Automatic annotation (TrEMBL):
The keyword Amino-acid biosynthesis does not apply. It comes from the Bacteria. Residues 1-24 form the signal peptide. The keyword Signal applies. Keywords: Signal. This is Peptidase family M23. Pfam families: Peptidase_M23 (PF01551). Gene3D superfamilies: Glucose Permease (Domain IIA). CDD domains: M23_peptidase (cd12797). Residues 69-186 form the M23ase beta-sheet core domain. GO terms for molecular function: metalloendopeptidase activity. InterPro entries: Cell_wall_metabolism_enzyme (IPR050570), Dup_hybrid_motif (IPR011055), M23ase_b-sheet_dom (IPR016047).
């Protein structure tokens, strides 16, 4: 057969493949599956575990994963943010394959793991895309699902809201990508196990700077008028009850995520002239931490607050180098 004949045969084969749907399609380019601002009103807590052994590594060989974790966790900073409502969005166009609703929004710490056996994903939606791709959306709020099985959905369409259903202790979306039934890491598609930064991103190019990997982050920071606990920070009550001039105490607090073994935290509160009035210089962390809480404060002086403006500086050092910092202030009204 001459070259022209070969080309005609190749073209015919392509046309037949296209007509029968046999032409291979690439992976979908994913949109952000949550209606929030990454790094401000929501945060990536965990990535897919890329280590096939009984240990865990994220796609950079960092510690932001745990053994067997098969998705990406987009976390809200407080339960108050969850209760206000944050939409879950379809990451790509497709058809609703499965759904589940009706599970309570309750921390597994309260309900126990047995209560969510065989339904760890909680209220959920699975969307089928072209060429064997699927996306799954877990832990959605009870009664919030807006789609039914068989519905056609478009990218960025709201399909529900972030909740606390299933096997979870904090409000977040657990987002899973599969191809041919196998887990695909949207940050490192096609990467060999433990390859540290290999593979390619499945996110829309415009999203990739926003979703750049961050080893550590600050989930909450502010001032309170009473002792601070992990529970009061998680509830969001501290955001609604900011200290005023009548406050009996002034406590600066920071909740960090992703801190590493050896990190040294310090939190210093200063008055308007720069003098230190409270501080907390913590010991080096003995192990990697999913989340940490540090606070520093003082009681109201006998004569009342003689100043209104206070500033706090939170610093994390690792081997003497600055790796995380936040400066925040308050003007007592």
């Amino acid at each position: 057969m001459d070259r022209v004949g070969i080309c005609r045969a190749a073209a015919l084969a392509f046309c037949l493949a296209w007509a029968t749907g046999a032409v291979a399609e690439g992976p979908p380019l994913l949109e952000l599956p949550v209606a929030c601002d990454i790094g401000r009103s929501c945060f990536i807590q965990y990535y897919v575990d890329s280590d096939p052994e009984p240990s865990a590594k994220d796609h950079t060989c960092g510690s932001l994963s745990y053994d067997g974790h098969n998705g990406t966790d987009f976390r809200l900073p407080t339960m108050a943010a969850q209760q206000a409502g944050v939409d879950v969005l379809a990451a790509a166009s497709g058809r609703v394959l499965r759904r589940r609703d009706g599970m309570a929004d309750t921390s597994v710490r309260e309900a126990g793991r047995a209560s969510v056996k065989d339904s760890e994903c909680g209220n959920a939606v699975v969307i089928e895309h072209a060429a064997g791709w699927e996306t799954q959306y877990c832990h959605m709020a009870k009664g919030s699902l807006r789609v039914e099985v068989g519905d056609r959905v478009e990218a960025r369409q709201a399909i529900g809201r972030i909740g606390l259903s299933g096997l979870t202790e904090y409000p977040h979306l657990h987002f899973i990508v599969r191809h041919g039934g196998k887990i695909a890491d949207p940050f490192a598609y096609g990467a060999p196990p433990n390859s540290c930064g290999a593979g390619r991103s499945l996110w829309q190019p415009s999203l990739q700077p926003l979703l750049a990997y961050r080893q550590r982050g600050i989930l909450n920071a502010g001032f309170a008028a009473a002792p601070v606990t992990m529970a009061t920070v998680e509830s969001g009550d501290l955001d609604r009850k900011r200290p005023n001039i009548d406050a009996t105490a002034l406590v600066a607090y920071v909740r960090g995520i992703g801190l590493k073994a050896g990190d040294v935290q310090s939190l210093v509160v200063e008055g308007p002239s720069g003098q230190t009035i409270a501080e907390n210089r913590a010991q080096p962390l003995q192990r990697d931490q999913a989340q940490t809480l540090i606070f520093a404060g003082l009681k109201r002086p006998a004569g009342g607050w003689d100043r209104r403006f206070f500033q706090a500086r939170y610093v994390v050092l690792h081997e003497g180098k600055l790796v995380l910092e936040r400066i925040f202030d308050i003007d007592l009204q």
